[in-house]
Amino acid sequence: PVLIECGARPMGGSFPQDMVRDCLGSTQLDLALMATLEPGTFLARLNEPYAVRKHFCVKYLISSRQGALDATPAVSLLTALPSARGGNFIHCLEDGHVDRTVDLLSSPAMLFLCHENRELVRQDHELVRDLESEGQNLLFELSPGADLRPDPDWVRRIPDELWLKSEEVGAPD
User: Fold this and answer.
1) What span, in angstroms and rounded, lies between the C-alpha atoms of 147 and 6?
2) In whole angstroms, how far apart are CA 162 and each of 99, 100, 170?
3) Is 66 left (phi over 0), alpha (psi -120 to 50) or beta?
4) What is the pLDDT of residues 100-136, one digit of tens each?
5) Is 23 within 8 Å of 75 (Cβ atoms)?
6) Which helix (H) or strand (E) element contains residue 84?
7) What b/e string do you get for 106-135 counting C-beta neighbours within 10 Å, with b at 16 or more?
8) pLDDT tens readout for residues 14-25
9) Which of 18, 107, 20, 25 minimizes the C-alpha distance to 60?
10) CA separation (Å) from 112 to 39, 56, 71?
11) 22 Cβ partners below 8 Å, 6+ apart?
12) Half-sphere exposure in the Cβ direction for 91 (13 Å, CA)
């Protein structure tokens, strides 16, 4: 093995490895270990055709709003989907807060969809997207009112002319 990138990592490390095995038969790490520890078995597999056993989708949930979290109906609602295989809601549950999603890191949770039927995975994904755009409270119930988390950068949004005064204007009389 040769390290090419200082941040090298196997594909799918944050995905449930049992799901990757169900879908593809093995993980990248499984094959790397096999090539090193059982080279004969690995070489014999090289002629096997690539086959997708199940279809898999990781859906990072999107929140169009932010606030204190009252309840997470998404956990029971989304896990009832036919292709739902798991998820990760730990961040928002531990924090008790949902941020407005602006990038991957601000996603409040992720859902793993996996099934033999590709169309079913697609339909479940579309249903989740519809809930994100039309039924935010069906996913994350937030406390009424504005965001309850203080904004540490509030001072940066105040125009300079409202708080920076010249010495003449600000000098005591």
Assistant:
1) 39
2) 29, 29, 12
3) beta
4) 999 988 999 999 999 999 999 999 999 999 999 888 8
5) no
6) strand 84-88
7) ebbbbbbbbbeeeeebebbbeebeebbeee
8) 778 899 999 999
9) 107
10) 33, 7, 21
11) 53, 54, 114
12) 13
The set of long-range contacts for 26-31, using a CB threshold of 8 Å and a minimum separation of 24, is none
Cβ-proximal residues to 147 (8 Å cutoff; 6+ apart), any chain: 66, 67, 68
Structure tokens at 39: 């080279």
Structure tokens that stand for 48 in this block: 């096997």
Residue 82 · residue 124 · CB < 8 Å: yes
Q: What's the predicted TM-score (pTM) here?
A: 0.72
DSSP codes, 97-117: EEPPPSSGGG-S-EEEEEES-
Query: Comparing C-alpha atoms, which of 111, 70, 57, 116 is closest to residue 89?
Result: 111
165's tokens: 């005064």
Instruction: Please report where in the chains the tokens 């499984």 appear, as a residue.
Output: 30
What mean pLDDT do residues 1-11 have?
67
